[in-house]
Amino acid sequence: MAKKSSIEKNARRRRLTKKYSAKRARLKAIVHDRKVPIEDRFAAVMKLAQLPRNSAPGRIRNRCEMTGRPRGYYRKLKISRIALRELGSKGLVPGLVKSSW
Known about the structure:
This protein has helices at residues 4-32, 38-50, 81-90; strands at 73-74, 79-80. By secondary structure, it is mostly helical.
């Protein structure tokens, strides 16, 4: 089980990303538009830099929904490999057969 602080920090990052996504997209569109004057583009870059760092989507870490484990994460299932193995052993994942010999 991951530390509660790590899980909460990641949840905070998700909330901030959702909150600032529209503003961030608008500023990025201005920055990448070559038709906009360079002064306006630079001002957009400066406004983008003033946004909270944790509002950037690249700072979100994929974590297991059950345990909070950051590694061995299956995106499709949103759980880690260890949690998947435990659920498979209990027969809770349809179509998954855990081999044992």
